[in-house]
Design a protein that fits this description.
Elements lengths: L1 E6 L3 E7 L5 E8 L3 E3 L2 E4 L1 H18 L6 E6 L5 E3 L9 E2 L7 H10 L1 H9 L8 H11 L1 H6 L2 E3 L1 H10 L5 E2 H4 L4 E2 L4 E2 L1 H6 L12 E2 L4 E3 L10 E4 L3 H8 L8 E5 L3 E7 L11 E4 L6 E7 L3 H11 L6 H7 L8 E3 L19 E3 L7 H23 L5 E4 L6 H11 L3 E3 L4 H14 L5 H4 L4 E3 L3 H25 L1
Helix pairs in contact: 1-6, 9-14, 10-12, 11-12, 11-13, 12-13, 13-16
Length: about 475
């Protein structure tokens, strides 16, 4: 069997596949997030223990040799480890907002734009640049104690295999990687005031690093590949490799990705270019901060259960009876297709006559408009695949097809883990049929009349967003 490991923000999963890409079993464990005052952290020991636990469960449920394992996980954040790969403090999550004042300063003095023009990375508070600069200013002893600033999957790879600390070009893409040379841009390090911390940046494995498991979770000697991180892994798992084709991940993070061979560093700085294992091939990424997390907040606040969502969406008309939601709920603001650290969510058109269905549908529509904005900015011209937890709602998928005005190739299951296996197979020279492995579960077509309605509603969304951004500043 082939094993894909996906170390997510709230859930750690491991999936087993046969040689034809059929999903044999999935094991999962929740992991905690500590949120307080804009700070969002995770316990590395808890995360690693969850990885070992799901791998142990999976290999027990599906007996037989493990041909190879591919590793992926959440990107960004800062995971500080010592020379033995052990944590020196809690990991700072990609959702962390503590560095927003530094980012505000860089937005004002031109540093933010200068970095984008060099690397194609539009920094946000939870990416390594601002976080490392924040630690250097306010918690320097943590950096003094660390040997390397890793990303999530890199920490796990180090512990599973004992291999030296390393990352890959996909995780390194934000914000220090020069996408042309595929090496760190020391001028960017200098611009962020981190030259004296340059040694903390992990060596880049290009192509992705490989090593053998030491026997925790996976049988000793199992071949393991480190990467790419979850966004490009999902693109691989959904078959998005042809320039112009796109992927929308409807998960905690609403991520829009478009395959490209271009590198355009002009225009409004936003998103990033994610380098891949194929030199010259990149993903233009617009990873918005909040996806299903916005809907989860509304459901929790209104007392609606997830199993009620489809019925509420079906019973509420397009436009949600005048209720509108700008779904920017993240405590660190928004990062794509624009950067606005102080932007917050807005609900308008609400009255005593508004129902729970109105709030739920308006939120789903708002998320759809945000996705349309991101996909347009990323340069979508071809087909669009969709994956993530949101695909479990068929009514929401129909709504999303209408809001986006295009067919959706819905790819279900553990798409990130699937992509991690395909990346590992490529790295080890194991022939797997990617076309079979990435075949969509279904294709959802938009309704022409509703799509026309949402095209006009999208323009209204953009106008309200422009006003909200102005107020946020």
């Amino acid at each position: 069997m082939y094993v894909g490991i996906d170390v997510g923000t709230s859930t750690v999963k491991a999936a087993a596949f046969d040689a034809g890409g059929r999903e044999l079993a999935v094991a999962a464990r929740p992991v905690g997030l500590a949120l307080h005052g804009g700070v969002v952290e995770q316990d590395m020991e808890e995360v690693y223990s969850a990885v070992v636990a799901v791998l142990g469960e999976l290999t027990t449920r599906v007996p037989g040799p493990v041909e190879l394992a591919g590793l992926t996980g959440q990107g960004d954040g800062v995971w500080l480890v010592d020379k033995d790969g052990l944590p020196v403090r809690a990991a700072a999550s990609w959702m962390d907002g503590r560095a927003h004042e530094l980012l505000d300063q860089w937005l004002e003095d031109g540093t933010f734009e200068a970095v984008f023009r060099r690397t194609g990375s539009a920094m946000f508070p939870g990416c390594p640049g601002p976080l490392l600069a924040w630690f250097d200013r306010y918690e320097p002893k943590a950096l003094d104690a660390a040997a390397t600033a890793l990303y999530c999957k890199d920490m796990v790879f180090r512990r599973l295999t004992g291999a030296p600390a390393t990352t890959d070009v996909s995780d390194a893409s934000m914000p220090f990687l020069d996408p042309r040379t595929r090496t760190y841009d020391n001028r960017v390090v200098e611009l962020l005031g981190l030259t004296h911390r340059r040694g903390l940046l992990a060596p880049i494995g290009d192509p992705v690093a490989v090593a053998e498991a030491r026997g925790e979770g996976l049988p000793a000697g199992t071949r393991v590949a480190n990467g790419p991180y979850d966004l490009p892994a999902c693109a691989l798992g959904a078959g998005v490799t042809v320039p112009g084709d796109g992927l929308l991940i409807v998960g905690t993070c609403l991520a829009s990705l478009v395959a490209t061979t271009d590198l355009d560093l002009s225009g409004e700085p936003a998103g990033l270019y994610i380098s891949t294992d194929r030199p010259g091939h990149r993903l233009r990424a617009m990873p918005a901060m909040v996806g299903t997390a916005a809907l989860d907040w509304v459901l929790s606040t209104t007392g609606v259960h997830h199993e009620e969502v489809d019925a509420l969406l079906a019973d509420t008309p397009p436009g949600a009876n005048g209720v509108r939601v700008l779904p920017y709920f993240a405590p660190s603001g928004e990062r794509a297709p624009f950067v606005e650290p102080r932007l917050r969510a807005q609900l308008t058109g609400v009255s005593l006559e508004s129902t729970k269905g109105d709030l739920v549908r308006a939120t789903c529509e708002g998320i759809g408009f945000a996705a349309r904005h991101c996909l347009a900015a990323a340069g979508l011209t071809g087909s669009l695949a969709v994956c993530g937890g949101g695909t479990r709602s068929p009514v929401w998928m129909r709504l999303l097809a209408d809001v986006l005005g295009r067919p959706l190739r819905v790819v279900e299951g553990e798409v990130g883990a699937r992509g991690a296996v395909l990346a590992a197979a490529e790295r080890y020279g194991v022939p797997l049929d990617a076309g079979v492995w990435t075949k969509p579960t279904t294709v959802v077509e938009p309704d022409a009349a509703r799509a026309a309605y949402y095209t006009k509603a999208y323009e209204d969304h953009l106008a309200r967003l422009a006003q909200a951004r102005e107020r946020a500043r």
